[in-house]
Amino acid sequence: MTSKVKGIISAVSAAVMTAALSVTAFAEDGGGLGGSVVATGLKNLLNDASTILLGLAAVVGTVCIVYFCIRRSAADEMDRKKWDNRIITAVVSTIGAVVATSLLTVITGYFGGGT
Fold it and tell me: What is the mean pLDDT of residues 93-104?
């Protein structure tokens, strides 16, 4: 993997962990933070963002895969291998994005009781 991809993966991982830790910190009912406007608003924001990102990841991933398949069908034998690698990368990235956004939904679902 290139350093650019590793940097993006690190940034996304850091953002997800920060969000999860923030929700965890605000979900504590013992200190009164669980029912506060900030905690409720953060939980709702994360739920809305994960829903939007889930749909966006699926649509963008599908469009990229279809585009790569079309380009692969018009490529010669040497370029076909490159397009195969791009298709595999797009499929794996789409699956990773869907799993990450679903995980964020699951994590925020544990906090705050009901919405």
Answer: 87
0.85 exceeded by pTM: no
- 48 has pLDDT over 70: yes
Indicate the residue type of 42.
L
Do 30 and 24 meet the contact criterion of CB atoms below 8 Å apart?
no
* Other CB atoms within 10 A of residue 98 CB: 16
Q: Which string of DSSP letters, residue by residue, matches the chain?
A: --HHHHHHHHHHHHHHHHHHHHHHHHT-TTTT-TTSHHHHHHHHHHHHHHHHHHHHHHHHHHHHHHHHHHHHHTS-HHHHHHHHHHHHHHHHHHHHHHHHHHHHHHHHHTSSS--
Which amino acid belongs to residue 16? Answer: V
- Residue 47 CB-density burial (10 A; 0-12 exposed, 13-18 middle, 19+ buried): middle
Structure tokens at 38: 């900030």
